Amino acid sequence: MSACETGTDMGQGNDDNARADMVFIEGLEIEALIGIYDWERRIRQPLRFDLEMEFDNRKPAASDAIADTLDYKAVSKRLIEYVSQSGFGLVETLAERCAELVLREFDVARVRLKLSKPGAVRGARAVGVAIERRRSGAG
Ligand SMILES: Nc1nc2c(c(=O)[nH]1)N=C([C@H](O)[C@@H](O)CO)CN2
């Protein structure tokens, strides 16, 4: 196995590895007030979040310390808190606000976020949006 494959080289290959690393949250279900129709303003609907957050895996792997990583539980709890009290019309707006929150409040330079609204369209398993955002100033 090459140095690049083991992640032990300190050259360009190492930087490429760092960009590829991520902490992810898959299928986070949160109920929220969301939708553009009158009937939707009177109920709460389930939403599902999938996130990929760029994060260099090597530092926490070296220390084995939670303080050195991006705590996916902390991110999940904060999203649950925010989304549960939100009340936007469009999934686009909520997705944008959630991506901003992650970039602002956590040590994340780039986030991919998919927001699914299951059951919103008959015949479709889910509909929604997927966005990718970088912290301004981040490479
Ligand atoms: N691109 C979008 N299209 C639609 C949205 C939305 O948020 N973004 N919302 C609705 C309704 O609220 C729908 O989910 C009710 O079934 C319709 N289209």
Automatic annotation (TrEMBL):
EC number: 4.1.2.25
Broad enzyme group: lyase
Pathway named in the protein's UniProt entry: Cofactor biosynthesis; tetrahydrofolate biosynthesis; 2-amino-4-hydroxy-6-hydroxymethyl-7,8-dihydropteridine diphosphate from 7,8-dihydroneopterin triphosphate: step 3/4
Keyword list, A-Z: Folate biosynthesis, Lyase
Residue ranges occupied by any Dihydroneopterin aldolase/epimerase domain in the UniProt entry: 23-133
Catalytic activity: 7,8-dihydroneopterin = 6-hydroxymethyl-7,8-dihydropterin + glycolaldehyde
InterPro entries per UniProt: Dihydroneopterin_aldolase, FolB_dom, GTP-CH-I_C/QueF
NCBIfam families linked to this entry: folB, folB_dom
Protein family per UniProt: Belongs to the DHNA family.
PANTHER family for the chain: DIHYDRONEOPTERIN ALDOLASE 1-RELATED
UniProt function note: Catalyzes the conversion of 7,8-dihydroneopterin to 6-hydroxymethyl-7,8-dihydropterin.
Protein name (record): 7,8-dihydroneopterin aldolase
Organism: Luteimonas vadosa
